Each structure stands twice: as structure tokens, then as C-alpha cells.
Amino acid sequence: MNFICPRCGESDERYIGYKNNVPYCRRCISFIGENATYVQNNVTENALELNYSLTKEQRRISTRITKNYIEGTSTLIKAVCGAGKTELVYGVISYALSRGHRIGFAIPRKDVVIELEDRIRKAFPKNHVVSIYGGHHEILTADIVILTTHQIYRYEQYFDLLIMDEVDAFPFSNNNMLLRLSSNSVKGTLVMMSATPEPSLLKLFNQPNHEILELNTRYHGHALPVPEIVVKLGFLKYEYLRKKLTIFKLEHKPVLIFVPTISDCETLYKKLKRDGFEKGNYVHSKRRNREQIIKDFKFNKYQFLVTTAVLERGVTIKNLQVIIYDSDSPIYNTSSLIQISGRVGRKYDAPKGEVIFLSSHISDEMAEAKQRIIDKNLFL
Q: Residue 84: left (phi > 0), alpha (psi -120 to 50), or beta?
């Protein structure tokens, strides 16, 4: 009989090794040998504290999620960017806490885990909340565990409720091993959330004991900003960027300038700085002090940031404007363009803003992303 890894379900012989004639999974080898102590939490009280009300649609979906949880049905929430997905699961978290259940909330990136931990603490001030990510896993148990997607391997048949956000993003996207690890970590039900779920995930939730719930409007009721496609060739593209950046500066509006690669990020920032745009900075996955730079940007220390996809998700800044430089690059698929566009207009008191696809030609992905956003606005 072929060996099947009990942790991640891998059975491909290419990933199975042997030590002293005992099989092991090469995919999970980095996890072997880590000792962790898990303590059962006996929650006696919880109190959800919000200083705002959910919309009628948010309440409807929140109630349905809790009902599904009680009945053992897993839920996929398909909601537009800025719909308030996190608020949709507060109700089911509150219910699970009242039963002493174990709760996990998984997200792909460390930056968003740290930000979400603060939001969850404020919403549930009487409960113990802990965040788990690379290099930060001294405490592994709490009333609510917020963790990066990769850290799910630490929890086998552990969570009564596992909430997974941004399931269309790296590293979860098209990663069968992480899908198996996620399923193996849950002894109860899953709640998955995405603005742009992949066809394979939609297919998975079109089966018994699964349900897809859709929310096609933002919490503040305003339309999604429709991208403007601007085609410029050669140096005219950069000149257009300079012009828009100058206008946004005069209007005191913060700007994110997305670029395809780390090299593009550093090169464009240096070029802008050389040309007199001093109040800016840049961030990418290898940038030191990235978290502090992003925090400073939110507090208006910088007027613009040049960034790679690290700020594609989980960013909410008042009056934010977005320019995707070289938006026709193959690195940008339809989903990523929609996610980036969704950074704009997320605040109740600033629901509008500009999204600009700046490129040398119009790619199929650019055209589709714009059309899908227009289609979503028809629900208003």
C-alpha cells in the first residue's frame, strides 16, 4: 500500500522519503520535530463590541453563516472588495466563543495578520487573541488564533471554526497541499472568503454541506471605483504619471503606485525622487522596515508609495488613489487588478477615488477587470 501523509495527505512517490525504512513526507519535513504545547481554552464569556451597525445585507449574511455553522455546513463568502467581509464573521465568532469552541482566522500575509489582530481585539476585548506567523509563534493557543496560511500546519484536527480570508491569493491559490492541511486542521466547519474565488473553489462549494453566499455591494452603499484605462507609449507614460502625481499632491490625496517587480519598484522610486517628488517611499517583500513605512504612509508622512503586490490586499486608507504602472504586465491577472482597484473608496466618509490602469496597450485582463467591476455596480 502506498504511503499517505497523515498531515497533508500527500501520496505522490516523488515526495515520499524513507529513514530507517520509515516513510515520511518531504513536503512536511520542515515541520517535523517542532514541539508545541496546546492548551484547551474554556471560554466563559465573550462580548462583541462594535461602535457601528451592520447593513441589512451584512446582517442577513452574518445570520446565515452562523446558521450554517450550527448545522455543520461550510460557507464560501463571495464579496466585493470593501464589502466588510471581516464584519460578516463576527457573529459566528461570537457564537463559537459562547460554546467554548476553538477559532482560527487564517490570512496569507503577516502584515494583514498584525492589522487584523488589532481589529479583532477591539471587537472582542474580553477574549484572548493571539497572532501566529513566521518567527512569532511562542504562544499557540487563545480564544481566537489569527495566523498566516502557512502556519495552519501546526494545528491538526484542532479548530471548531476556521475562517480563511483571501483564499484566491498566494500561497493558498491552487495549492493542494495547503487545501489538505486546512481541511485537516478543522474538526468543525470552514468559512472561506474572497472577492475573486477561483473556479475550482466554486466547484468545491457546489456540493452537499457547503454553501456560497454573495455580497455584491460595499458596506457604505457606493459604487466600486471603475478603473480608467490610459494608454501611453515610451516616455509619455512616465510623464503622465508625473502629471497625475502632481495633481494628487495639490489635492492632498495619498497615492499607491503599483509596479510589477521589485526592480521596477526601486527604479521608479529613484526616478521620481530625482525629479523632485521627495515626499514618498517604496515597499516590496524584501524592503527592510516595511511595516513602519506602511504605518507612516497611513499617518500622512508620505504622499505616495511605490509598491509591488505586497499592498494588493488588506489596505484601507482614506482618500487613497491608485495607479497601476505597466498594468499590461503578465504579472497582473484579472483577479489581482480587481483586488488592487478595491483599495480605493473603502472609507464611509471617502467612498470615491481614482483607479488608473497605465499601460502601453490594453490587455485582455485589464479589459475584463474593468468590465467585471462595472457589472458588480449594476447591483446598486
A: left
CA dist 328 and 279 (Å) reads 27
Q: CB 271: neighbour CB atoms within 10 A? A: 14
* Whole-Å CA distances, 285 to 136, 252, 258, 263, 282: 18, 27, 13, 12, 11
- Residues 276-327: tens digit of each pLDDT: 999 999 999 999 999 899 999 999 999 999 999 999 987 889 999 999 999 9
3-state SS assignment for residue 255: strand
Which is higher by pLDDT, 279 or 140?
279
Q: In terms of pTM, does the model score above 0.85?
A: no
4: CB partners within 8 A, 6+ apart: 10, 11
Residue 1: what pLDDT?
Answer: 46
Within 10 angstroms of residue 249's Cβ, the number of other Cβ atoms is 16
Instruction: Answer yes or no: are the C-beta atoms of 304 and 186 closer than 8 Å.
Output: no
H or E element, residue 191: strand 186-194
In a 10 Å sphere around its CB, with 0-12 CB exposed, 13-18 middle and 19+ buried, how is residue 279 labelled? exposed
Mean pLDDT of the chain: 88
Q: Name the residue with cell 482597484.
A: 341
C-alpha cell at 167: 483564499
Q: Please write the tens of the pLDDT for every residue from 145-176.
A: 999 988 888 888 999 999 999 887 766 666 67
Q: How many whole angstroms separate alpha carbon 260 and alpha carbon 31?
A: 32
Q: What Cα–Cα distance (Å) separates residue 107 from each residue in 32, 131, 303?
A: 23, 11, 28
Residue 311: φ, ψ to 5°: -110, 20
Alpha-helical runs (H) found in the chain: 56-71, 85-88, 90-98, 110-123, 176-185, 199-204, 235-250, 262-274, 290-298, 334-341, 364-377
